[in-house]
Specification:
By secondary structure, the protein is of the alpha/beta class. It contains 10 helices and 10 strands. The chain has one domain: Rossmann fold, CATH 3.40.50. 35% of the residues lie in helices and 16% in strands. The longest helix has 26 residues. InterPro entries: AB_hydrolase_1, AB_hydrolase_fold. Pfam families: Abhydrolase_6. This is AB hydrolase-1 domain-containing protein.
Length: 358
């Protein structure tokens, strides 16, 4: 296909950028409510160069506060890197859970939002049905009984959902990228000292911090982050600490019987403290640095242990990123996804290279 631009032939030879399908579907068993999604098909397979990700599906799992559109820049960055390097890529899927973004409310919720309409296990079962229907419709029409190898890229409570999914459906998840996981076993109020505890010594507080500062911080976190706080999604966290009481358990069984490949990412302490102070929380930075950041670091250190030791990386720091890593560092997210994919298929590629004398 001559174009008169032979000097740019290397660019012209690049595979086309995939067009996303932006659509919705109704889950079986949940009539009358649409789940909206954005889907990118996988790169093409050829007899001479099969796509090692042909049986894989990357699913992006949102936190409570950002919809699926928060992943758009990370996805664009990832696809640009794969295409510019002429590397294959799997199908990519972002979606809004019930009550999020463009999606309808969960039809099983009894109360209007904000509410505690359904719990995380309900969201996990919906995710299973959703991925199954997407797989049947888009990728495995001729053999719909086969379930894909899932790679879950998650932020905040999305990480808890991914853990519950992988534990509930063992053997389905081959890779996990945790981006500042929610501390699923925390009430987010107990992170801070309680000035009303008998015998409390105000001299134990960091320099420049008053009892009033601590009370205000505890109250703000109670109103916004305590498991009893309802949300517009209707996703209740009241039983989350019971579902996931430990950060280092349960241990997960991934695709093919081994533990899934896992990368645990934590926020940048300084960035998170600054955002917590300048945002709606107004938490004094020294409080975040003294209490919240160490607790989160300890939690992330536990998360690394939920898979086989040789399959885990982290916790690493998303430099310059606060809690919403995909918002602050989409390039970082795409880099870590590239790295995770390489680990997931590394054995296949090494065998292939040896067979070809490489």
């Amino acid at each position: 296909m001559p174009s008169g631009k032979s000097a740019q032939s290397s660019e012209e030879d690049l595979p086309p950028f995939p067009s996303p399908e932006i659509s919705s579907l109704v889950l079986e068993g949940k009539p009358g409510a649409k789940v909206h999604y954005t889907y990118y098909p996988p790169s093409a397979s050829t007899p001479h160069r099969p796509n090692p990700f042909a049986q894989s599906l990357v699913v992006f799992l949102n936190g409570l506060m950002l919809p699926r559109s928060s992943w758009d820049q990370s996805i664009q960055s990832f696809l640009n890197k794969r295409i510019n390097n002429r590397l294959p890529y799997p199908a990519l899927l972002s979606y809004d859970r019930y009550g999020q973004g463009d999606s309808d409310r969960d039809p099983d919720d009894k109360e209007p939002p904000p509410c505690h309409g359904h719990d995380c296990m309900s969201a996990v079962h919906a995710l299973r049905q959703f991925t199954l229907q997407i797989w049947k419709e888009h990728l495995d029409i001729t053999n719909p009984t086969v379930f894909p190898s899932l790679i879950l890229v998650c932020n905040s409570i999305g990480c808890a959902l991914a853990r519950l999914f992988a534990h509930t459906y063992p053997g389905t998840v081959s890779g996990l990228l945790f981006l500042n996981s929610i501390m699923a076993n925390s009430d987010f109020v107990s992170l801070w000292p309680n000035p009303d505890t008998p015998g409390f010594d105000p001299h134990t507080l960091p320099p420049g911090v008053s009892e009033k500062d601590v009370r205000e911080t505890r109250e703000m976190y109670r109103r916004m982050f305590h498991p009893d706080a309802p949300n517009n999604e209707g996703l209740s966290r009241r039983n989350l600490a019971t579902l996931l009481p430990q950060s280092d358990a349960p241990k997960l069984e991934g695709y093919g019987g081994q533990g899934p490949y896992l990368t645990v990412v934590g926020h940048d302490w300084e960035t998170f403290a600054e955002q917590s102070y300048t945002g709606i929380l107004h938490t004094p930075k020294i409080l975040t640095m003294t209490y919240a950041n160490p607790a989160w670091q300890k939690y992330n250190e536990g998360l690394v242990k939920i898979t086989d030791e040789e399959n885990a990386i982290g916790p690493i720091v998303a430099v310059g990123c606060g809690h919403f890593v995909q918002k602050d560092g989409p390039g970082f997210v795409s880099d870590e996804l590239v790295s995770l994919l390489d680990r997931v298929v590394n054995r296949v590629e090494q065998v292939s290279e040896r067979d070809n004398g490489g």
